[in-house]
Each structure stands twice: as structure tokens, then as C-alpha cells.
Design a protein that fits this description.
The structure holds two protein chains of two kinds. In chain A, 38% of the residues lie in helices and 5% in strands. Chain A has a domain at 84-201: Cytochrome c-like domain (Cytochrome Bc1 Complex, Chain D, domain 2, Orthogonal Bundle). Chain A has helices at residues 2-19, 86-89, 108-121, 123-126, 150-154, 157-166, 180-198, 206-213, and strands at residues 72-74, 77-79, 167-168, 171-172. By secondary structure, chain A is mainly alpha-helical. By secondary structure, chain B is an all-alpha fold. Chain B folds into two domains: 7-35; 39-80 and 115-219, no CATH class. In chain B, α5 packs across α6 (101-109). The model of chain B has no long low-confidence stretch (mean pLDDT 93). Classes of the chains: A mainly alpha, B mainly alpha. At the A-B interface, α1, α3 and β4 of A face α1, α2 and α5 of B.
């Protein structure tokens, strides 16, 4: 019995010594205790896969094809993503001129969406105020556009949309990260930021002016 | 007879029983302790091909999760960013740093960076990121304090019991949707008040948003 107890204690100590405790950091791939159907022969996004020549599960769309999708609701009615329309290109249909005004219905909902997307995607460089003093400036980003520059304020909405989509100078395009309607929301919010700096106390509703002066 | 079975064999059945109980207890305890994602998955911290630090990007620079994981609100899958997304800044910041060589190379050639996936549910689990983050379930609930991790590790078990803990009582976890990516956010710094506010607001959200938090099998297994 003594031998047995000693053996048992040794086994327990050995198991704990080898296996360790719950939650300790480990470089080893997790063990799947019951691996039945855990890993199936199906594609998961962004994983290596030998089926395609480039070895990836996620493929780019075939050139010249478009995604079937639902139309965007613009101020002028529904527009499909493949149509040559200002909402898709930022330009007047059939021309290269930028569209002057945001084709979406600009309301509070759009502006709030724009603020959220601006804070996520633009504020790291352009700053929360749009003055180009984002956090990246401290880390060596040399040239960041100030959205309050006269040049920027005078830009048509379509040009801002175009810059957002395809980039300009050192800025890369954000078409992959921000959807078309969200890009227009950001354009609307950038306009609101610019207006905030150009405004005068007289623009504030009379009822709120007293609070402003305090 | 006594020559064949000495006297001590009288105790043998008792000793065997005691031994079996001890071994049984040990094996049961071992399986209970080790054969669970709480042991098998929690703490998994693989070496990544690029030493990307979430702590620097999120905690120090204050970037939002969705700058890189841009599809998390509209897809079941929370994407890794394209290397081009890294280059939005790193074309200028640390632009010649050897630690980023693989990122630059990937952005130039289109060859993916071989990141090691850490959080990976079994293939028969159909977890949808978008439906959770759009209904006030934060990244932190399933991924832990990623915002302060220099190297990401598997912080929560992501076992079925873990999912059900929340699905049985979503009001204990749900938060305002605009605070989902703020991993340090809480209702109040005072733990008791925080719990009270969580309870009251959680129940309100569950009611207002008609949160179903399904518990039947085919909610997650198809």
C-alpha cells in the first residue's frame, strides 16, 4: 500500500509537472481532445489552402465582374453600385468633373455615422478636429493634410470622396476599409468639421447662445 | 488453505477498492482539470511572423479595433487587415525598420503574411462577429484585454459553456454599442455600482433590442 501510494503521488506530480496549470502561456498548438469534425474540408476565410494556385482560401473577384448587390439609397433615389452615378464615382455621370454636393440625404444619422467612421479611420492622422494633428504626427508622419485649409474647404464633395477612395500623395485609398455610403458619411462629417471652425457665434441658435457666452 | 492464501490477503479486496477509488478520483480530477478548453486553449500564444503589438497600437496610440478589423461589423468573420492597411502609416512611420520587412514585402508582392490564428472555433461552430458587436457584445468579452497585450494569447476558453454563460443571461454582459471597441470601458469605476448599472441597463437593452440570445442547438451548430 505504501508503494502504491508513493507511485500514485509520483504520477500526480509528474502529470502536473508536465502538463502545468490552466491558463499558463504556451507556444504549443492547442490539443483538440475530441477532434471529431473539428476541422472539416471546407474553406475558411484568410487561411492557407492548396486548392488555388496562389495558396489562399480567399480569392479576389474575377476581373471585369461585379458583385450583385442591393442599391444604395441616395437623395435622388436608389442607385446600383455598377451605375455611372455620382454616388459611386464622386464625379458627374459621363464627365470627369467632381460632383459638388453629397448625393446622399444628409441628416443627423448620416453625420453621426460619419463621425464614427471618421474617428476610426481618419482621426489617427488627421486628428479628431481635422487639423492634421493626429497621433501619427508624433511618430514621424511628415505630411498630413489640414482639413481646414482653404484648398480643402473649397474642394467639391466629390473630390473629397475621390481622395478617400483612392488616396492622394502619401495617403493611401480607403475603398477597401470604408464602404461607399460610409465614405459619403465621412465627407458629410468633414464638412461639419470645417463648418465648425468657420462658424460665428451668430450661427448658434438664439436659445443656446447664452450658454455659449458663459 | 492457509498456505496458499496468507492472512494478509483478507485485506486485499479492501485495499483494491481503496486503490481503485484513489485511481478513479485521480483520473476524474485529471480529465476534469485538463480535458477542457480552459486548459487546452487558454494561454495559447504562438510566435507570430511579425512582432505586432496590440498594446502599442491600441493602448498607446488609441487606435480603434475597426481601423484594421474593418469587416467585423458586417461579416461573420473578423478579418485581418491587408498588408496595405499597415502601410497606410508604415510607409512613413518606421519605414526602414527590419521588424517590418515582412509587411513591406507582403504589401509589395501581394504574398500574405503567414499569421498564426489563435482564436479558432471548431468548424461546426457558426459564430457570427457582426451580430454580436452590433448588439453590444464587446471584443473584450471573448478575446480578453487584447488592448494591453504585446503578444496576443488566447485569454478566454471559448468553450460551449463559455458561450452559454452569456446566452443564458445576456443582460450581464451587453453594453452600449458605441463602447464595444473600448476594451477598458465600464459603467462605473466602483464595482458595486458597475454591477448595478450593468444589470439595469443590460435588461433594458435586451428588451429594447429584442435580443434573442438563442440557446437551441442549431443557433450555433448547423
Amino acid at each position: 500500500m505504501r508503494i502504491f501510494l508513493t507511485l500514485l503521488a509520483v504520477v500526480v506530480v509528474l502529470v502536473v509537472a508536465i502538463a502545468g496549470f490552466r491558463g499558463s502561456l504556451s507556444r504549443r498548438t492547442p490539443i483538440e481532445v475530441f477532434p471529431d469534425m473539428d476541422r472539416q474540408l471546407k474553406l475558411r476565410p484568410q487561411t492557407p489552402n492548396g486548392f488555388f494556385a496562389n495558396g489562399r482560401s480567399s480569392q479576389m473577384p474575377v476581373p471585369g465582374t461585379i458583385a450583385r448587390s442591393t442599391p444604395l439609397q441616395t437623395a435622388a433615389g436608389p442607385v446600383f453600385p455598377y451605375e455611372d452615378a455620382a454616388v459611386n464615382t464622386g464625379r458627374l455621370p459621363g464627365k470627369t468633373n467632381f460632383v459638388d454636393l453629397n448625393p446622399m440625404t444628409v441628416d443627423l444619422r448620416l453625420l453621426e455615422r460619419g463621425r464614427e467612421r471618421y474617428t476610426i479611420n481618419c482621426a489617427p492622422c488627421h486628428g479628431a478636429l481635422g487639423d492634421g494633428n493626429g497621433i501619427t504626427r508624433k511618430y514621424g508622419m511628415a505630411v498630413i493634410g489640414n482639413l481646414h485649409d482653404k484648398r480643402m474647404v473649397q474642394m467639391p464633395d466629390g473630390e473629397i470622396f475621390n481622395t478617400l477612395s483612392y488616396g492622394k500623395g502619401l495617403m493611401q485609398g480607403y475603398a477597401g476599409q470604408i464602404d461607399v455610403p460610409d465614405r459619403w458619411a465621412v465627407v458629410a462629417y468633414v464638412r461639419a468639421l470645417q463648418l465648425a471652425r468657420l462658424g460665428t457665434p451668430e450661427d448658434v441658435p438664439a436659445s443656446a447662445q447664452a450658454a455659449l457666452r458663459k | 488453505m492457509s498456505a496458499i492464501f496468507p492472512k494478509w490477503t483478507n485485506r486485499l479486496p479492501l485495499l483494491m477498492l481503496a486503490g481503485l477509488i484513489l485511481i478513479g478520483t485521480g483520473v476524474t480530477a485529471g480529465v476534469w482539470y485538463y480535458f477542457t478548453p480552459k486548459y487546452a486553449r487558454v494561454g495559447y500564444q504562438p510566435v507570430q511572423p511579425v512582432a505586432f503589438s496590440h498594446a502599442i497600437h491600441v493602448d498607446q496610440l488609441g487606435m480603434d479595433c475597426r481601423y484594421c478589423h474593418s469587416a467585423v461589423e458586417k461579416s461573420w468573420f473578423s478579418n485581418l487587415p491587408a498588408s496595405g492597411t499597415c502601410m497606410n502609416c508604415h510607409s512613413q512611420v518606421l519605414k526602414d525598420d527590419p521588424r517590418l520587412a515582412l509587411v513591406r514585402q507582403s504589401a509589395a508582392t501581394g504574398k500574405p503574411i503567414p499569421w498564426v490564428q489563435i482564436h479558432r472555433t471548431p468548424d461546426y461552430v457558426y459564430f457570427n462577429h457582426s451580430v454580436h458587436v452590433n448588439r453590444g457584445i464587446s471584443c473584450v468579452h471573448c478575446h480578453g484585454q487584447i488592448n494591453v497585450m504585446d503578444e496576443v494569447y488566447h485569454a478566454k476558453p471559448l468553450s460551449m459553456a463559455f458561450c452559454l454563460e452569456c446566452h443564458r443571461d445576456p443582460a450581464a454582459f451587453i453594453r452600449p454599442p458605441d463602447k464595444v471597441t473600448d476594451l477598458t470601458w465600464q459603467w462605473s469605476a466602483d464595482p458595486r455600482q458597475n454591477a448595478e448599472l450593468q444589470r439595469a441597463n443590460g435588461q433594458k437593452f435586451v428588451h429594447d433590442w429584442k435580443v434573442e440570445s438563442l440557446q437551441h442547438c442549431s443557433a450555433c451548430h448547423r
